[in-house]
Amino acid sequence: MNQLQAMRVFTKVVDLSSFGLAGKQLGMSAAAVTRSIGMLEAHLNMRLLNRSTRSLSLTEAGQLYLDGCRAVLEKLDDMESELVRTTRDPSGVLRIASHSIFAGPDFATLLGAYRRTNPRVDFDVTVFESHLDLIEGGFDLCFAIDRQPVNTTLVRRDLTSIREIAVATPAYLSRRGAPHTPLDLAGHDLLVAANGPRTWEFGSQEANHRVAANGPLVANGYATVRAAALADMGIGVLPLPYVAEDLACSRLMPVLNQYAINGGERALSLVYPGRSYLSIKVRNFIDFAVERFRAATSPASPASSASATSAPSPASLQPGHAAA
After folding, report:
1. Beta-carbon neighbour count of residue 311 at 10 Å?
2. CB neighbour list of residue 134: distance below 8 Å, 6 or more residues apart
């Protein structure tokens, strides 16, 4: 017996005082309505309705059961209505994890743009450096890089690519001189992110060079390395999104920009659990992010014309710098 359906049938019979009318409104035969009430009474082991050829009336137990049925069905209907509403209007908390290489201005810009069109969605953001388990952490989605292994049960959507760039302030380069080859870095102060490699690699068509990244500062995040570089402390290697605005405003200058650093560009992807049964807020955010990155790297976008080896223009402040 479908007890919820039987409760709806019982309530409708009482409201209309008729098995036949209840059946018509519910799309059931009068016999099916009678069987449903009979099964409900058998399940409860008590009579709910007094029947005669001309009228129906509730027993004392039936009145109590009717009140309970109305409360349960009303709560269920409210819950289903709310569920339908939330599938059309994203709301709630979106738990997002992001690798630190993307957790800079572009990430904040993306979240801000999304919330302007979806003000009922809040964010719970976790930034990680090396590894994070998306499933165990209970995250809705994650911005990951290609060097991070991904569980085979997850979906991975490539978004764009991010390259690293060596930078320093004009004041530091004026004082210490600009390096012309990776070997020249041995005579400079190097600013190192603890989450990044301790040996910097510079590649060109002629050769690859490895430089021991030792210097006056080792920090556990890119933000501190950027701040130290802006304070004229030395040369740092940072993700391009972190310093695009500084480069555009000449607060920082590219160093050895003709070389590919640390293996070249790194793919940024959006990772999330399997496609089935995604909540509306997750699906909506995924679609928004994918479309925003696609627009930023389309042929018509100024960002797509920026050279992978030249200093970035203000257009590179859009999410990503090169098409995936």
Report:
1. 18
2. 97, 141, 142, 151, 154, 271, 272, 273
Smallest CA-to-CA distance from 182 within 262, 65, 286, 281 is with 262
Taking residues 301-316, what's their average pLDDT? 37
23-74 pLDDT, tens digit each: 999 999 989 999 999 999 999 999 999 988 778 899 999 999 999 999 999 9
> What is the spatial distance between Cα 221 and Cα 289, in angstroms, rounded to a whole number?
25
Q: Mention every residue, 6+ apart, whose C-beta is less than 8 A from residue 287.
A: none
Task: Look at residue 139 and give its three-state secondary structure.
Answer: coil
- What is the C-alpha to C-alpha distance for residues 322 and 307, in angstroms, rounded to an integer? 8
Q: pLDDT tens digits, residue range 180-228? A: 999 999 999 999 987 667 889 999 888 889 999 888 999 988 889 999 9
110-113 contacts: CB < 8 A, separation 24 or more?
Answer: 110/289, 110/292, 110/319, 113/288, 113/292
Question: Cβ distance 233 to 168 under 8 Å?
Answer: no
Delineate the domains of the chain, giving CATH numbers in brackets: 3-86 (1.10.10.10), 92-158+265-323 (3.40.190.10), 164-259 (3.40.190.290)
3-state secondary structure of 45: coil
Give the span between the Cα atoms of 141 and 247, in whole angstroms. 31
